[in-house]
């Protein structure tokens, strides 16, 4: 079952913040976040493995609430290079290595 | 270290024809995955190899799709005969570890069936 991502799209001015959410109906072992630019392969951002864990990549951070079966990605002080489509990939406890990806959140950062 | 490579980068074929996509994973990665993204939709899992064995092929759409990984190195995904709805971008990914392991994606093969 695919995780649900929200919002579908967000337009930001450079320097603004945004939050992307990823929710699953199943118990999660891990959540992986990727960013894909048009015509390119998805680029790995981070993996979250434990409940409540937070990680960071530049000014992009994420949290994982194991109990709520959801993860949030925080784009802080966005830069033009943050534009792209963000996907969360979830791995459940009964399906190792098999990612289910959300539909993606398109992020556009404008000057 | 070389990343995951895929060939061709773009293939345009007519309905009914056959196409074979190739993926070379990162050397030493036992786990190899195929995904597909149809335009405007999410990336969908197709199948997972551990070495040369199919671990999970639950995402394969139908029997027109055949994946192989002889010798546990590169993998091929054959579509025969191709249909219009097979158009999309086919991604391959590989990982060293299974559970919780980072998957490294290839650049994808864009398949257009006309």
How many strand segments of chain A?
A: 11
Alpha-carbon distance between the two ends of chain B = 37 Å
Main sheet attributes: strand count, strand direction, barrel closure of chain A: 6 strands, mixed
Helix residue percentage of chain B? under 10%
Biggest beta-sheet profile of chain B: 7 strands, mixed
* Strand elements of chain B, count: 11
Oligomer: heterodimer
Spans where pLDDT lies below 50 across 5 or more residues of chain A = none
| Percent range for β-strand residues of chain B | over 45%
Mean residue pLDDT of chain B = 92
Shape descriptor of chain A: globular
Largest interface, C-beta within 8 A: A-B, 25 and 26 residues
Query: What's the mean pLDDT score of chain A?
Result: 88
Walk me through this protein's architecture:
The complex is a heterodimer of chains A (111) and B (114). With 111 residues, chain A is an all-beta fold. Helices cover 0% and strands 56% of the residues of chain A. Chain A is built from no helices and 11 strands. Chain A has strands spanning 4-6, 9-13, 18-23, 28-36, 43-48, 54-57, 60-65, 70-75, 84-92, 100-101, 105-110. In chain A, β6 (54-57) and β7 form a beta hairpin. By secondary structure, chain B is mainly β. Chain B has strands at residues 5-7, 10-13, 19-24, 31-37, 43-50, 53-56, 65-68, 75-79, 88-95, 104-105, 109-113. In chain B, the strands form 2 sheets. In chain B, strands 2, 4, 5, 6, 9, 10 and 11 form a 7-stranded mixed beta sheet that branches. Chain B has a 4-stranded antiparallel beta sheet with strand order 1-3-8-7, with no helix packed on it. The chains are: A mainly beta (111), B mainly beta (114). Chains A and B meet through β4, β5, β9 and β10 of A and β4, β5 and β10 of B.
């Amino acid at each position: 079952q695919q995780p649900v991502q929200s919002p579908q799209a967000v337009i930001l001015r450079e320097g603004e913040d945004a939050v992307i959410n990823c929710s699953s109906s199943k118990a999660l072992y891990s959540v992986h976040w990727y960013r894909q630019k048009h015509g390119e392969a998805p680029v790995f951002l981070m993996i979250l493995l434990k409940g409540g864990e937070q990680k960071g990549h530049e000014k992009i951070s994420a949290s994982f609430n194991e109990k709520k079966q959801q993860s949030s990605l925080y784009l802080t002080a966005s830069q033009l290079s943050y534009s792209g489509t963000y996907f969360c990939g979830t791995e459940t406890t009964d399906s190792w290595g098999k990612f289910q990806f959300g539909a993606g959140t398109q992020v556009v950062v404008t000057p | 270290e070389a990343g995951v490579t895929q060939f061709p980068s773009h293939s345009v074929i007519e309905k009914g024809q056959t196409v074979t996509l190739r993926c070379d994973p990162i050397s030493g990665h036992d786990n190899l995955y195929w995904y597909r993204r149809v335009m405007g939709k999410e990336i969908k899992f197709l199948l997972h190899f551990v070495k040369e064995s199919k671990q999970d092929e639950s995402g394969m759409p139908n029997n027109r799709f055949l994946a192989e990984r002889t010798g546990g190195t590169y993998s091929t995904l054959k579509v025969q005969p191709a249909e219009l709805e097979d158009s999309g971008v086919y991604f391959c990914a590989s990982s060293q570890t299974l559970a919780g392991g980072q998957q490294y994606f290839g650049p994808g093969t864009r398949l257009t069936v006309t």
